[in-house]
Every structure is written in C-alpha cells, then in structure tokens.
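Sample A.
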Amino acid sequence: MQPLPMNLSVIPAGQLRLRRHADFQAVYKVARKHYAKEMSFFFAKRVPLAELKKNVPVPPEGPRVGLTVGKVLGKAHDRNRIKRRLREAVRRQAGLLSDLPVDVVLHPRRTYLTLSWAELESEVAQAFQTVRKLADKPQSPTPLRERKGVSKNKPAPKKPNNAVKTGS
C-alpha cells in the first residue's frame, strides 16, 4: 500500500512523535479506543492555534504519533525491536496523515515481533486511513471521561431517600 506523496524530509522525525506524558494523557482523555488487526490505537484532533492559551507551548501543525509498548509485550530487547519496526512503519506511512493536526497513540500487540514487514506496514497504513476518515467527522466537545455513564471510576449518583423519618 503506497502512502500519499509527501516530502518527509520537510518534517523532522522528532516532530512526528508524541513525547510528553501530558500529550499522551490529552489523547486518552478525549479519544475512543479503535482496533486494527494487530494493534489498538487512540487519536485526537488538536486544538486550533487560535484557541490555545497564552502560556501553552505551541505544538507542531502536522500529525504526531506516540507509541506505548509496555512490559507485558516482552523483555527490553523485544520491546525495543517492536518500537524500532513500528517507528519505521510510521515514518514511511506518515504521508497518510500529512495535513491533519492529530495526535495518534499506537498500542501494538506482541504479534508485532513475528509479523512480516509488509503486514506491519499495511497495519499502520490501515490505522492511519481510519484516523483520516474519522478526523473529518466532528468530535464531541465534551471529553469522554466527563460524559455521563462513560467513566468507570465514578460511583453512581445516590438516589434521594424519599422515606420520611419519624422522630424518636
């Protein structure tokens, strides 16, 4: 699968990556989990520059991609191999997201160690095409975690007790 034509030398590799914990948390806060065959991913559109506060650092205008490869995926050398392969696939497929101001977080499965290169690259391309398709749809202005019934951590609201207590 061929990416859209784009001169990747224009975008430094460091600008294609999510690095700060706060950036990852911002994506998790407003995004839904999407699934591809061998990975899951989150994405969120970034706030337009005009809406940023004065003291907030300005993010780059193109797409940014973050990888999360936890210890459950294997020993350090396995996790590093997964990240190296995934970073290269992201770099090659970055043209699919070239003009979108989105942040994407990829969660690969352990099977990424044994996937052929063609399968891995097509998996990333499929995820990016899904992001491109869904990024054109309007997102809800309220973050998911603040919507009613979505958060699992909040206890259910208490119902008022209508029983009348009698004094003793």
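Sample B.
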Amino acid sequence: MAGPKTRANVKAKPAAKPKAKPKAKPAAKTKPNTAGRTAALLRGINVGRNKRVSMSDLKALVEELGFGDVRTLLNSGNVVFSGGKSPAKDAARIEKAIADKLGVTSRVICLGADDLATVMQENSLRDVAEEPTRLYVTILGDKADRARLLPLLKEDWSPDALAVGSLAVYAWCPNGMLESRLTPAVDRILRERATARNWATLTKIAALVLPEEDG
C-alpha cells in the first residue's frame, strides 16, 4: 500500500504590508493672469485742475470698449487690460472714447507685454538712480523721435543723466524734475507725442502686465 501523502515543507509568506497612501500635493499658488495684457498710459491726466478724469470712469470706459480684466493704477492715467488687438489700434480707440465720452483730450500710448519688457530691460540708469521716483521714463509715441533725441547724449547734463532706448528715454534727475535742465530739453523735442512715468510707477505697471518668472 502506498504510504500517506505528505505536504511539502513550505515557509509561510509574510503578510503584505499595506501600501502607503500617496501624500496629497499642496495646492499650487495661483498667479495673476498676465497673458495678453496691455498697459494704456494717458498723457497729462489729473495734473492740476485741467484734464480731470476719475479712475472709475476710465475703468468703465475701457470695459465698455470690450476689453477685459481692466484695472487702473494710481491717479495718473494708467490702465491695464486684456483682449487688445494691437497697441496702436487700442490706443486710438481709447483716446477717441475719452474725448467723445469724457470730454478730455489726452494722448494715449499703449504698450504690450513685449514692448513693456523692452522698456524695463533697456533702462541703463537703474544702478545710477538712488531714488526711483526721480528716475523718469518717457515712452515714445513715435519711434522716429528716437533719432531726434540722440544729439542730447553729446551734452553734459550733470548732475542729471540721460539714456535713450529703442522705445523710451530715461532721465535721472537727482534734484527733481523742476530743478532739471534735461527734462525741458526732452519735452521740447517730443512735445505731445510722448508720456512720462517715474520708475516707481512704471515698475508697478509692469507687475500687472508682465508674467511672473516661474519659481
């Protein structure tokens, strides 16, 4: 008779450890949507008693033109929006609407993100200027004016300093604009075809238009 069958001596497998649950990733910080943003800069708004425009009226006007995500900054005629066609066409539409609906004549210059980035990057006076509110950046409405400004670089404007970029002219006036010989010389060339902002204001505008660096 055959002997009884015996079981093989098999070691018992250890119980499987439960899989650890994946850790939930922290919610990503949302960044402001700056894609396709444009800055519109109005000339001579709210300086003294003339050309008074409330920023709420300006915001409503730009929204009525069909632009989106409209924001104004300070009281000097700065508005940022999305949905623009081209800077030149957007500026013409806004300028006409301000004249027609608000009864104010003001030159409007629009800068898309690329042009504004260029203006910021070409400022060679950043290391010289100790006070950003006394570093003035004049945005050119007509690029042909750049050639008219170049002869000014041959003159001594000390204690002021001058730099000319492709889209703007930069003037460092340590004693302020009223004490400067340089800013009147620039104004005589550009007249109504340009508009100026100090570096502190322009930096705030750029923060609303230019995309943040990753990381």
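B remarks: Residues 149 and 189 are 7 Å apart (CA to CA). Residues 37-209 form a domain with the Alpha-Beta Plaits fold (CATH 3.30.70.1280).
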